[in-house]
Amino acid sequence: SDYELLNNKLLETKPNIKILANCAGFGIFDHNENIDLDTKQNMIDLNCKAYVYMIDYCLPYMNKGSHIMNIASCAGFQPIPYINLYAATKSFVISYSRALNKELKYRGIHVLTVCPFWTKTKFFDKAVVKDKKEVIINYSCMYFPEDVVKKAIKDLYRKREMSVYGWTNKIQRFLVKILPHKLVMKVWMMNQKFDGTPSIR
Q1: Considering the entire predicted model, what is its pTM?
Q2: Is 200 in a helix, a strand, or coil?
Q3: Which of 61, 81, 111, 137 could crosslink 101 through cysteines, CB 3.0-4.6 Å?
């Protein structure tokens, strides 16, 4: 497997890993019943399992002053209908990364959780299913990846626990902390004109 290839290469070269950046991931915008099980399994494997494997394989080669950067998402702050599994995987990344940051502190290894808002990347090439109606019709704002990365790098060297770029992102993070998630989901459904069925509008 690819993990075995990586592990063998690490055993062979014994590198001094200063920064491990786990950036891979994908999501699908659609109703749960419209997404096949293989796609769901692949999403869990890449968004969650790969992060755990990469960290476990690389930790033996990390020392005091090393950093781990895990890309999560603002989607991980709350349950999101029609993006439900992707949001759940990012909730996993946030919880896992924040706890890991505490556990690795004794070794002087820092873990940063990056939680971008909507960002102009190739993520949408996969998330938006071609030849189908647009699932997400209202994006409150869209950030540039360069700006998200610049802040993430600053936060990494400042040894912050989490990197959240953009005021819209920060306000949403605050609101979903204090508002019932039932209400948050209701507002989301109304904003996107979802009715809970597999048919998209």
Answers
A1: 0.94
A2: coil
A3: 111
